Amino acid sequence: xxxxxxxxxxxxxxxxxxxxxxxxxxxxxxxxxxxxxxxxxxxxxxxxxxxxxxxxxxxxxxxxxxxxxxxxxxxxxxxxxxxxxxxxxxxxxxxxxxxxxxxxxxxxxxxxxxxxxxxxxxxxxxxxxxxxxxxxxxxxxxxxxxxxxxxxxxxxxxxxxxxxxxxxxxxxxxxxxxxxxxxxxxxxxxxxxxxxxxxxxxxxxxxxxxxxxxxxxxxxxxxxxxxxxxxxxxxxxxxxxxxxxxxxxxxxxxxxxxxxxxxxxxxxxxxxxxxxxxxxxxxxxxxxxxxxxxxxxxxxxxxxxxxxxxxxxxxxxxxxxxxxxxxxxxxxxxxxxxxxxxxxxxxxxxxxxxxxxxxxxxxxxxxxxxxxxxxxxxxxxxxxxxxxxxxxxxxxxxxxxxxxxxxxxxxxxxxxxxxxxxxxxxxxxxxxxxxxxxxxxxxxxxxxxxxxxxxxxxxxxxxxxxxxxxxxxxxxxxxxxxxxxxxxxxxxxxxxxxxxxxxxxxxxxxxxxxxxxxxxxxxxxxxxxxxxxxxxxxxxxxxxxxxxxxxxxxxxxxxxxxxxxxxxxxxxxxxxxxxxxxxxxxxxxxxxxxxxxxxxxxxxxxxxxxxxxxxxxxxxxxxxxxx
Length: 627
Prior knowledge:
10% strand, alpha/beta, 12 strands, six-stranded mixed β-sheet, single chain, 63% helix
């Protein structure tokens, strides 16, 4: 082995080790709850005007909540017991002298109605606009994640399951939305209410307030302890829920194979196992959550009982009025109510923390195909392609491509063949930058493809794949997928050139006929011809055919090959071949073996030379004769 090959192998291993390490670093990184909440709140910045309305509503709701017990205090102390009004309400003596207690009682009663009405208005404002902001944030977050996923290298999808990603896009985003619309608002209102009540209680009786709130630090320590346990349990629940979604998605996607092989019971058993695991994880999380409320309730009842006993003693000794004790009891109950709510929210906050970690793990993934700031649109290219010392690997242990070199002139037809797993499809994936090589570069018309915009580069390349992917929709939409603005004439011409017009006209609604998901209502040959029509409409100067006839019967293959011949006219064509008959007449055949170019030449030259190609060809010819 040459020194250059050894150096390239080592480069491959080092680069991919770094990529894998960064992937695991993202998964392992756990954010603090505070930093994750700050990150989530930052998403609401584009909606500042709504946030301002929410804050006004919260302020009104909080102030009215603090004012709620004061009408009753005035009735008890100033109307019934004829105590002087508190200093903060001394201005009312000017309007309601001590002898006008009935008027003061009426004002207290009416003020209670106003307090409730203003509080209700504040509650409406913060609830309605908070939901609006939460919906906007969820929409932005979902679109941001989907945009990021659309632009990641295919290497990311080689190591991540679609069901897990769907679980994050739906379940975790919904968790964030629910938290932002309900829980976060409750936390903020509760915190403001607690702060306001502490200030008022300290103004009324500082010493009694300190005694009343003595249990609070113990509550906070207790909640903090359980929060860690809840977070761990919730992370397990979300992981198991994702695995359950993966099992269901794969089972339903492969329903034809499941039915064909009679494996319904097997698939149901798989779901049963993962569902039971999810159940156990959820019950473990519930056990932790269920232990919080009783303990918190007992601690709060002890504190409330002490305040009631101590307050009654102070009233009997004439140190405290009945109205002040009533005020304290109202605030103590209101104070511990949000504290209890915050304790109950431990489970919700743990779910949100885990959801944000999973979302961040996607958004921080750095396997996105990089685009230079000064990248240019390639315009309409000729189609000259040069591979210079290309090396690539999916993992450091098994390099797929090693020091690959190839010159393709515009208009040439190149066939690439070789044993399974030799890197045929990887080569064409590098041209479209589905992956980037570990070393070396690819030039199109003399320009490094990394100098082009990614979208501009891919506009120059048409694909016909081994298994043409059709989307749920009409035949017209599927043909025009690569060029949404295609005219009716272009679509019809493409269908005609692809030998698809005959079967399309037999469909109940012609071009407007709906095809099932992944095109299951059409035969393999029909799907391929729609794929060819799609490539014709795109009209790209470079055409890549990735084993387009390998899964077809002989009759369908003949029709598809005629359509492909129409498509290949005047283009640079690279054909990945399993059936070697499809590349007999190309300008040059490249034979790959173990990631390197083992042979190259025309069909006749390679047959005469003997070697891998001749062996592959004779094996296929012999098999066809036996058939």
